[in-house]
Amino acid sequence: MPINQPLTDQLRQQARRLLAEKQVDCVIGYEAGRRGGARPIVIYSPDEADRLIWGSECVHNLTTYLHNKKKPRRRGEEPPRVGIVVKPCDSRTLNVLLAERQIERARLFVIGVACEGVVDGAGETAAKCAHCTDRVPVLYDVLLGEPPQVAPAPDDWSDLDRIAAMPPAERMAFWLAQFDRCIRCYACRQVCPGCYCPTCMFERDDGLWVDAGIEVPQKYIFHLGRALHLAGRCVECGECERVCPMGLPLMLLNRALAREVEALFGHRAGREEALSPLLFELGPEGSPI
Fold first, then answer.
1. Fewer Cβ atoms within 10 Å of its own Cβ: the N or the C terminal residue of the chain?
2. How far apart are CA 278 and CA 231, in angstroms?
3. What DSSP string describes 232-265?
4. Cα–Cα distances in angstroms (integers) from residue 149 to residues 16, 56, 89, 145, 254, in the given order
């Protein structure tokens, strides 16, 4: 994979220093995959810092792995202090999780990376980058790289406008055809940093809304329910769509709700540390890290 060596060197230096000085207990970043590309890695010692990389294929939103660091590794210990590498879109997730009291800022060291976009497994520009207007993380303790000298692009809603222009019956047929391809693997839920409930409502034994069936109505309710749970919380990182084995256009749903919430309440998830205007209360899930 194409590695940005200057940024990789800076990243390794930062991680090595943080671990050697015991400012953090681990660093969540990227390493070269065995079959090419990049993959997430968690390192725990300065000697492992040379495994870290930065390049155009560092597409994953690593904030999902913070949910595994909420609790101590052993009884009687404090929860770990975590260093984490974030792109601009990923950093917005941190603001969402901070507002929802899922993470504790004092236990985080955020290594932000200026970003001009990343590529998917096929080497093409990642779908999420086509609509991204951010070049610098909104939250970081140290910033690697120079902010790209480009003006932020205006929001492009042309993908949503094409769907909205369809007659209602055609639009419904479009979505039912998409949901019919879903295999209920839950990859979209598992990769999403905003889906952190200990027991998902779609797998509860006493669930009243949907069961684990794979008929179109169950799949329809699952995807609409998940999208509504993320309304005002989705940072449009595109991980759900990236990992979907069936190629469902899940970001069309999430972006449609993001546009509605911004139009109604002036809120865009993660731009600042603020709760979604649709979130009435916080649940007891997890303790902060």
1. N
2. 7
3. TT-----HHHHH-TT---HHHHHHHHHHHHHHHH
4. 30, 18, 18, 12, 29
State if pTM tops 0.85.
yes
Is 65:40 a contact under the CB 8 Å cutoff?
yes
**Nearest CA-CA partner of 59 in 1, 119, 4:** 119
Q: How far apart are CA 91 and CA 74, in angstroms?
A: 29
Other C-beta atoms closer than 10 Å to the C-beta of 140 total 20
CB-based burial label for 1 (10 Å; 0-12, 13-18, 19+): middle
Tell me the HSE value of 286 on the side-chain side, using a 13 A CA sphere. 23
What are the tokens at 149? 């000298």
- From the list 78, 74, 73, 80, the residue with the least C-alpha distance to 27 is 80
